[in-house]
Amino acid sequence: MIAKNRSIPKEIEMYEAIIRRLPANHPRKAEFENKLSRKKAGYKGEKELDYHISQINHSSFTILHDIRIPYNDTHFQIDTLFISNSLMIPIDSKYYAGTLEFYPEFNQMIQYLNGNEKVYPDPILQTKIQGRQLEAFLRSHQFSPPPFEPLVAITNSQALIKNPTQNKEVSSRVFKSPGILYKIRPYLEKYQEEVLTDQDIKKIVKLLLRKHSPYLPDLTELPYSDFQKGVECPACNTIGMEKFHSLWGCKKCGHTSKDAHVAALKDYFLINGQSITNRQFRDFLGIPSIHQARRLLSQLDLIITGEKKGRVYTPGKNF
Question: According to CATH, what is the number of the domain 229-315?
Answer without folding.
Answer: 1.10.10
